[in-house]
Amino acid sequence: MSKTEALINEDKQYFAKPGRITYYPLAIESGNGALLTDVDGKTYIDLLASASSQNVGHAPKRVTEAIKAQVDRFIHYTPAYMYHEPLVKLSKKLCEISPGNFEKRVLFGLSGSDANDGIVKLARGYTGRPYIISFTNAYHGSTYGSLSMSAISLNMRKKYAPLVPGFYHIPFPDKYRGLYGNSQPNTVEEYLAPLKDMFETYVPAEEVACIVVETIQGDGGLVEPVDGYFSALQDLCHEHGILIAVDDIQQGLGRTGTWSSVEHYDIEPDLITYGKSLAGGLPMSAIVGREEIMNTLEAPAHLFTTGANPVSCEAALATLQMIEDEQLLKASEEKGAYVRKRMNAWLEKFDCIGDVRGKGLSIGIDVVSDRESKTRDNEAALKICNYAFDHGVIIIAVAGNVLRFQPPLVITYQQLDQALDVLEEALNQLSQGALDHYEISGQGW
Ligand SMILES: Cc1ncc(COP(=O)(O)O)c(C=O)c1O
Fold first, then answer.
1. pLDDT tens figures, 175-224
2. Which CATH number fits the domain that encloses residue 42?
3. Which residue of 79, 110, 122, 207 sits 20 to 30 Å from the alpha carbon of 316, by its own alpha carbon?
C-alpha cells in the first residue's frame, strides 16, 4: 500500500465528512512556489492554490522567516485585552490598500466566514435595520451567519435549520447565462427586477441594512457580472441608505491582478472582507470599512481570543510586502492574459468549452455539452480534472462544470505552459471519448 493510501485510510477513521469535498487522493508532504509534492514523492503543478489561499505560493521564504521570527518573540497575546505592533502595522497597511477614499478601521478574525458574520453585525448595528441581501449561487462561508448569506448548496441548509433570520437572496447578474435557465444573459434592468420587486412587495428597502457582493462569484463558478450592474445596484443602495459590502475573500489580494477586485468595477464598498491568502495561508481574516461603521458597536461585539494573532499578522505583512516587491499584481494580470490567449484558442478548437472568463489569474473554464444551450457538462469537467491529476496538475471543478484556474501568482511561465499542455491534452482525449474510464461518482461539489 502506498503512503498516500495508508494516510487516506487513516484519515477516514478520524476526520468527519462535512469537512471535505472529495476530489483526488492527494496527500501533501511539501510545497514550493506553485509546486506540491505528495507523501509518495510525486510532484504536481498546483492550479488551485489551496482554494486561493496561497497567492504568494507555497512556503515562500520571506513569509516562513517572518513566521519563525515572530514565533520566537511571542506566539500570541489576545487583542481582546492588550496591544501589539504587528496588529497596528497590518491594520495600517490594510487601510492603505483597501478601496475607498475615507477614514477606515479594521477588525480581525480567523476565517473568511467569521469576517462575513462581522459584516452582518456591523451593518445591522450601524443602520439599525434587520435585513441583509446577498446573491443566489454565492458562497460566503460556513458559520451560521455566513452560510445564511450563502445560497449555493443544499448541504449548507439541510438538517441544521433554522438558519439566521433576515437574509434574502437575489439572482447574480451572470454575464454568460441568463435568468431561470435562459442561455442568453439578461440586461441590467432585468437582473435588478427581482430586487425592485422585493422592495415593492415584501422587503421594505428602508429596513435593509446591507447588500453583500462578490464581484466575481468564486465557488459559484467564476461568474462575472454584466457591465453596468454594480453601478446601477450602487445607485439603488444609495437611494435607500443601504450599505454595500464586498466579500473579497477569494478575489482579493492580487488574485484578479489588483489589490481588491473592486478596482475592476464601478462600486465603492462601505465594508470589505479579506481572508484566505491574507496571511499566506495562516488562519486570518479582516474586515476593513468606514470608520463610523466599524466603530459603531461596543466590545465584545466582534472579537476572538486568537484573532489578529501576531504570527499571522507578521505572515500577512510579509505576504503583502512580497506582493509589492515581486510585483505580483502585475504578474497576475500578465500571466492571466498569457494563459487566456491559449484558452481562447480552445474556444475555437473544442466544442466542450463554452466560455473562458475571469480577471488576472482568477479564471473559469465553463465546460458544456452544447454550446447553444450552454448545458453544463459536470462529468466532462471532472474527467478533465482527473486526467490532469493523473498527469501532475491539480485543478478542480466548481459549480459542477467550471474548471477553477487559480494558481499561485508566483507560478512560472514554464509551469503554466506545462499545465496548459496537460489540460489541452485532456481536452483532446475527451473529444475522442478517451476519458470515459474515469470513475467520477462522489467527486466534487
Ligand atoms: C468568496 C468567499 N467568501 C468566504 C469564504 C469563506 O472563507 P473561509 O473558508 O476561510 O471561512 C470563501 C471560501 O471559499 C469564499 O470563497
1. 999 999 899 999 999 999 999 999 999 999 999 999 999 999 999 999 99
2. 3.90.1150.10
3. 122
- Are residues 231 and 95 part of one domain? yes
By alpha-carbon position, which residue is closest to atom 4 of ligand 1? 140
CA distance 103 to 99: 11
> Both 80 and 222 in a single domain?
yes
**Protein residue with its CA nearest to atom 7 in ligand 1:** 112
User: Residues lining ligand 1, CB < 6 A?
Assistant: 51, 111-113, 116, 139-142, 214, 218-219, 247, 249-250, 275-276
Closest by Cα among 28, 61, 95, 35 to 280: 61
Give me Rg for the CA atoms of the chain.
22
Testing ligand 1's pocket by substitution, the residue of 120, 139, 284 carrying the most ligand atoms inside 8 A of its CB is: 139
Low-confidence ranges of the chain (pLDDT < 50): none
Using the atom order of ligand 1, give the atom closest to the CA of residue 275. 10
- H or E element at residue 170: strand 167-170
424 lies in which domain range? 3-56+327-431
